[in-house]
């Protein structure tokens, strides 16, 4: 009779060993299932890094220049004339992809839009593409890139945090108007601060519109320059006559934001 409890105890110990000391399939399954959602969060990071590596490995980033635009302008113009809708979609997709991958080619691509599609349509397509690309990067940062981005750009983001948390989209609109604020910084900072997508998209679209129109206008005049065999340097294009009006708009927007806040607090 005394042996039975020992046998039950041994069985219990054996069961405990199978469950804890030597996990079986049932014990391992929850850890695998629980780990999958965490891994899924990092697919935007893996996709982004792979795309960036591919772009630089193939040298595609060197094709986003005024020199390349001068070289291929006739072929691009023929494509626009033959298939305008497909060309517009290709342009928007290329521009949005470059912005989402943080490739610094916004001014060149905007000028290309003005050259290929004219001032008004070029401005509209470039603004739509830049906003779409910014939204894609914004969502990628919020979903998986936040720890990496915060570690490398945390100080810059913290300088913008008070204004973004206090004034939201109005402050972002002012940042988009300022030529000295990098486009990528105006995208990742709101994502890390926790801004919602709709205010971000609205502030971005409205904020980039004046600058987009200016660069599209410059692009619309490139054909005459290219026809004389000249290729302007981008640094010459970014002259005070272009940057100062945009800076003035940004200052006006900041003053408007400050006045609205004073009225709200008063």
TrEMBL record:
Keywords: Cell membrane, Membrane, Transmembrane, Transmembrane helix. The lineage of its organism: Bacteria, Pseudomonadati, Pseudomonadota, Alphaproteobacteria, Acetobacterales. Its main location: membrane. This is TVP38/TMEM64 family membrane protein. The chain crosses the membrane at residues 42-61, 81-103, 115-141, 168-185, 197-222, 242-259. It is found in: Cell membrane. Belongs to the TVP38/TMEM64 family. Residues 106-220 form the VTT domain. The keyword Membrane applies. Residues 1-32 are annotated as: Disordered. It is a multi-pass membrane protein.
């Amino acid at each position: 009779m005394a042996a039975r409890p020992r046998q039950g105890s041994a069985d219990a110990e054996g069961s405990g060993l199978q469950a804890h000391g030597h996990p079986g399939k049932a014990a391992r399954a929850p850890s695998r299932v629980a780990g999958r959602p965490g891994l899924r969060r990092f697919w935007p990071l893996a996709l982004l890094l792979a795309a960036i590596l591919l772009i630089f490995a193939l040298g595609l980033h060197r094709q986003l220049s005024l020199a390349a635009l001068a070289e291929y302008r006739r072929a691009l113009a023929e494509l626009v004339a033959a298939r305008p809708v497909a060309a517009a979609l290709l342009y928007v997709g290329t521009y949005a992809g470059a912005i989402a991958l943080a490739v610094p080619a916004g001014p060149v691509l905007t000028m290309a839009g003005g050259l290929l599609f004219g001032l008004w349509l070029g401005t509209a397509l470039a603004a739509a593409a830049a906003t779409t690309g910014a939204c894609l990067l914004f969502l990628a940062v919020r979903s998986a890139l936040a720890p990496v981005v915060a570690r490398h750009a945390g100080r810059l983001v913290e300088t913008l945090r008070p204004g973004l948390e206090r004034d939201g989209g109005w402050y972002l609109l002012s940042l988009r108007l300022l030529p000295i604020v990098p486009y990528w910084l105006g995208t990742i900072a709101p994502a890390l601060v926790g801004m919602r997508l709709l205010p971000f998209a609205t502030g971005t679209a409205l904020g980039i519109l004046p600058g987009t129109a200016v660069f599209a206008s410059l692009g619309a005049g490139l054909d005459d320059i290219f026809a004389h065999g000249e290729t302007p340097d981008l640094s010459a294009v970014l002259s005070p006559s272009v940057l100062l009006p945009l800076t003035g708009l940004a200052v006006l927007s900041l003053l408007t934001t400050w006045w609205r806040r004073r009225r709200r607090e008063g």
